[in-house]
Here is the input.
Amino acid sequence: MERELSFACRRICGGIAEGEVMVSTDPICFYLAAPDTGEIMEKTHALYGQSVAGKILVFPGGKGSSQVQGEGIYQLLKKGTAPKGMIIRYPDTVLVTDAIVMKLPLVDRVEEEFYKQVGNNDRVILDADNGVIKLWRGTSR
Here is the structure.
């Protein structure tokens, strides 16, 4: 078993989520994710063709108006293809509001070392309630 790493963060929307990490270098517009699969449909996006379903998303921020972001997240939740939680570098009022309304765990102000350590396929427990992220490198825990 690999060593558990722990990082402090700030709670934006509470909750606890555990799952596999998906890292995006691009901001995300959830309206451009296919509701049936959770796949990112935006052809120029770093996650194009990959599904956010059940993942803990690590990404810079959201993009799009409140209507398209909210509708996109709502459709993903309705179809069961939404991410389990989100770790965001640059929160905006649209994404924050949507996460709160839809009760998706969301944190920011994560220690910088986290971003140096985390990668795709790592596993995390995102404990937004207590402001802690526990990280295991690779998929084992």
About this structure: Residues 17 and 126 are 5 Å apart (CA to CA).
